[in-house]
Amino acid sequence: MGLIWDGVREAFRILGSGDREVWEITLRSLLVSGSATGLALVIGIGVGAALAFRRFPGRNLAVTLVNTGMGLPPVVVGLVVAIMLWRSGPLGSLNLIYTPAAMVIAQTVIAAPLVTGFTVAALGALPPRLRPQLYALGASRLQMLWLVLQEARLPLLAAIMAGFGAAVSEVGASLMVGGNLGGETRVLTTAVVLAARRGEFAPAIALSIILLTLVFLVNLVLTGVQLRERQS
Known about the structure:
Blueprint: H1 2-17, H2 20-53, H3 59-69, H4 74-85, H5 100-124, H6 130-136, H7 141-151, H8 153-168, H9 172-178, H10 188-197, H11 201-231
Helix pairs in contact: 1-11, 2-5, 2-8, 3-5, 4-5, 4-9, 5-8, 5-9, 6-7, 8-11, 10-11
């Protein structure tokens, strides 16, 4: 218990002292995971809408693959992305390995199946006559999609929370494709791993508390939006 309290005190000390390195790591975590979540939303909503509204051969297999991807091991994602981005790999000429961009790609691959699965479930739960009614009122395909997404906005907010949570808490893939380079690719999760490996448990606990606080604040904002939407 003493070690935990030391970590808590260290977290408050770091936050109070304005440690530049910690704030830099925290900001990088937010930017990388936020970017990955945004890309996952674009991909997940598009693919999820196609799976929810279209009937085609192999649809059940595609949905099964999406559901499988929701539990995809991050270390496997990291391995595949690292091979693709490695200097001798298919995308090696882009020189993205060990950069924040590589981490964004890996986290997007992890978060996108979650967003897609939530989108399929949310849009599939809408009244089946909603889309024909919108088309009958003269809505275009894009207008129809925008309107049904508004109807399903509360579950989609849950998709954002799930996607961001999966991205920001991921460590295996970030280590493999980012390398945990100080001042370049180090984020909160990889910083925790580094501190723990060094036996510096108080800083590791402090960084963990900062990470949990970041996730809590993001979810607090999105939950507040959900509650306001339900009351309106």
